[in-house]
């Protein structure tokens, strides 16, 4: 047998090492979504599975817990975990990761004052099948990062926690959030971690995920723009870190949209894909102001998809919002730089 392998190697039919050229995956498919109720139909799991994602990212509101009772929260997570459609999806998708937003954190519009956040973190990590004794189990906050290969390129996924350290906001009589000029979203420890993740990164692309939207500023709901100092700090960090190919993803809004922004000091346009409405999109929302939006506002059930492709020395990605039939409602072709 050894002699036969040596003949193949000398003939150039096999390459030595842990992987042959055929085994080097030239594509990476990352699917993502948010706003998912256990008491509503969940028709999208087989549709998303048909895209054969390598990674699924939960973007928050993964369940609607809205409770101070951790037994209730755990029961809702367990129900979601064991739903037949989602169980089949878990069996088909190699990697499932995620962060949270307010409803799965435990309280609508919850922030750092939520008294059960330490307990809630462990219940959420149980749902995500986080191994015992990892740093994510020990730290305050659910933030973490992962790396995936696309041929010779690397894609880093950075999951932020926008709840655990979030300062308070004032909501007026018209239910409009008023900006907190000095308020913070991430907490200093998470900021320092994020700076290291970007500044020291050797990845060719970076997906940064948050439960709430990063770029849009005009709507009246939760968003990074309600914390202008944090939003500006993030944009400044994208510039100072010189991180390659940043793509932002978010949920929360019960709509889908793609925003595009020129960030001072960043050599490429920064895109944000918001995908929100796995089970209950805001069908009544036929339009709202967003000067950064490219393409339509999506008010039907949908999910988001990145398809990365190594092409020569380039890394390309198709960013799409897709409907219940798996068809692209809107897509952007992006060269990652």
UniProtKB/TrEMBL annotation:
> Residues in domain PhoD-like phosphatase metallophosphatase?
44-286
Family annotation (CDD domains): MPP_PhoD
Q: Signal sequence span per UniProt?
A: 1-21
Q: Which UniProt keywords apply?
A: Signal
UniProt keyword Signal, yes or no: yes
The UniProt entry, under InterPro entries, shows: Metallo-depent_PP-like (IPR029052), PhoD-like_MPP (IPR018946), PhoD-like_sf (IPR038607)
Q: Does the keyword Endoplasmic reticulum apply?
A: no
Q: What is this protein called?
A: Alkaline phosphatase family protein
Organism annotation:
Hymenobacter volaticus
């Amino acid at each position: 047998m050894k002699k036969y392998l040596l003949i193949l190697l000398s003939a150039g039919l096999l390459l030595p090492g842990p992987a042959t050229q055929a085994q080097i995956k030239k594509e990476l498919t990352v699917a993502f979504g948010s706003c998912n109720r256990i008491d509503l139909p969940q028709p999208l799991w087989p549709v998303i599975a048909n895209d054969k994602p390598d990674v699924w990212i939960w973007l928050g509101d993964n369940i609607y817990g809205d409770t101070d009772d951790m037994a209730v929260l755990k029961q809702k997570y367990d129900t979601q975990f064991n739903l037949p459609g989602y169980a089949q999806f878990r069996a088909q998708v190699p990697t499932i990761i995620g962060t949270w937003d307010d409803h799965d954190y435990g309280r609508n519009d919850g922030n750092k004052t939520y008294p059960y956040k330490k307990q809630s973190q462990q219940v959420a990590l149980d749902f995500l099948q986080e191994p015992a004794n990892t740093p994510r189990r020990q730290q305050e906050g659910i933030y973490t990062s992962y790396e995936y290969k696309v041929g010779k390129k690397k894609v880093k996924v950075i999951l932020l926690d926008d709840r655990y350290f979030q300062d308070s906001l004032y909501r007026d009589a018209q239910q409009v959030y008023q900006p907190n000029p000095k308020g913070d979203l991430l907490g200093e420890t998470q900021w320092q971690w994020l700076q290291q993740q970007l500044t020291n990164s050797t990845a060719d692309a970076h997906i940064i995920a948050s439960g709430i939207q990063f770029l849009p500023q005009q709507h009246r709901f939760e968003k990074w723009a309600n914390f202008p100092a944090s939003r500006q700090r993030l944009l400044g960090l994208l510039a100072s870190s010189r991180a390659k190919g940043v793509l932002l993803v978010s949920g929360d809004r019960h709509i889908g949209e793609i925003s595009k922004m020129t960030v001072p000091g960043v050599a490429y346009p920064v895109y944000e894909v918001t995908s929100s409405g796995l089970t209950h999109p805001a069908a009544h929302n036929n339009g709202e102001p967003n000067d950064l939006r490219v393409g339509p506002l999506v008010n039907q059930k949908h999910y988001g998809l990145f398809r990365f492709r190594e092409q020569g020395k380039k890394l390309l990605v198709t960013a799409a919002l897709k409907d219940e039939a798996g068809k692209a409602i809107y897509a952007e072709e992006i060269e990652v730089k």
